[in-house]
Amino acid sequence: QVPLVESGGGLVQAAGSLRLSCSASGRTLFDYDMGWFRQIPGKEREFVAVITWSSGRTSYADSVKGRFTISRDNGKNTVYLQMNSLKPEDTAVYYCARYYSGMPKYWGQGTQVTVSS
Fold first, then answer.
1. Which of 8, 24, 69, 117 registers the highest number of CB atoms within 10 A of its CB?
2. pLDDT of residue 27
3. Which of 29, 48, 63 is nearest to 93 (CA)?
4. Which residues does 23 contact at the CB level (< 8 Å), separation at least 6?
5. Residue 37 neighbours by CB distance under 10 Å
6. What is the pLDDT of residue 30?
7. What angle (nearest 5°) sits at the alpha carbon of residue 13, between those of residues 88 and 34?
8. pLDDT band at 74, cuts 50/70/90?
9. CA 101, 69, 20, 38 torsion: positive or negative?
10. Distances (CA, A) of 5 to 37, 42, 48, 88
11. Rounded CA gap, 1 and 98, in Å?
12. Taking a C-beta distance cutoff of 8 angstroms, is the pair 68, 48 a contact?
């Protein structure tokens, strides 16, 4: 088990910004690809963004490209998701995930993001 802890969610108006953080207490995230996903009640969890451990290469879902930025600070053992120009449809529970063998395997407890119109 890798206890991942997300923070930074909350209520924001449309066009506003939030920054989510994901940290792993007692374990390093340096050697792993890390991702963000989100889920709306009644729907499947969907991919948002991923960052590789080796090169820091990033990839995004089309729905957030140009608005969200994933980054990592290995010195702080933390991964971030900067979310700008938020839309009501971005409202969801956001989860941090640590990848293993190319797939998200370990999950945080999630943090709620609510965007009001």
1. 24
2. 67
3. 48
4. 4, 5, 7, 29, 76, 77, 78, 79
5. 22
6. 72
7. 65
8. confident
9. negative
10. 14, 23, 17, 24
11. 10
12. yes
